[in-house]
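Researcher: Next entry in the queue.
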Amino acid sequence: MSDSDHHHSHEDGSTLTDIQKRVKALESILVSKGLVERAAIDQIIEHFEHKVGPHVGARVVARAWVNPEFKHALLKDATQAINHQSDFPEVGQHLIAIENSDSLHNVVVCTLCSCYPWDVLGLPPVWYKSAPYRSRIVSDPRSVLKEFGLKLSVGKKVRVWDSTAETRYLVIPQRPVGTEAISESELAKLVTRDSMIGTGVASFSAESKDHG
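Model: Structure for this entry, 212 residues:
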């Protein structure tokens, strides 16, 4: 269960996927009919590529790892905690942070549709919106997580959180061992989108640090 990374491109059409070609064709039709302005489309793309996305959530997680006061505030009211940080973009209401631990692993789903914390994770992956994920993660979470390459110990409890139109969730993964001397900005690079959904974990190796 994985989706290919999407890269916005203005290169020759032969380098585009079928879906990207269809999107560009639709964009051209809408622009030619005067229904949308190309500048507006570019602004939307700029917004989702640079102002929102998993890099925002990763910075939030890294801040929580190094700043106990911020983590406490984040777990109490994620929206308020993030919006009180001047270097984070403002997020919408009803964002709830949930923390993984040695005894508990959290994973997020939206069983009714595909509610997702766009403000901190950007666009949702294809598999998050799929019917198999939405149904199976609730009924058999361990098997689904194993398919993502995440095998949890028998003693670790798994809790599934169901997003709604009013509530979004952000998983705070466990900080990898051996990262005590790493800066906040470097820690953010270890946090993946999947780890903030709960279908992955943040990881670190001394080898990758030495050769990074």
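Model: The chain has two domains: 18-51, 54-211.
Researcher: Noted, moving on.
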